Amino acid sequence: MKSYNVTKKRNTMTTIWHNPKCSKSREALILLEEKGVPAEVFKYLDTPPSREEIAALLTKLGLSARELMRTKEELYKELGLAKIEEESVLIDALAAHPKLIERPILIKGNRAVIGRPVEKVVEFLG
Length: 126
What we know:
Order of helices and strands: EHEHHHHEEH
Strand content: 5-15%
Distance between the termini: 35 Å
């Protein structure tokens, strides 16, 4: 399976971690198109990111693994993640279950943002 490498993307390209089934993710993609921002679309559910890629993303976001998690997902509850404190275990859970990753995520160079609400996308694009 081909892996997407967050750390090796060119600094000029914007990448969006996209879930086509998510209305907020679709909104962000439309906004990029309307603003004429070329973007690489990374469908992270089709090609799950590695543990290392998630760790690199967290650094760019300036967030903890839990802050990247969709804590209202049933899977989050099923896995008992609310009781887990170890960052490495939470990163492992995100890598094993990409459905838990909040979306959309925009990345450009060493910066990244979770695009919820869509106004965060506008701010990120400047």
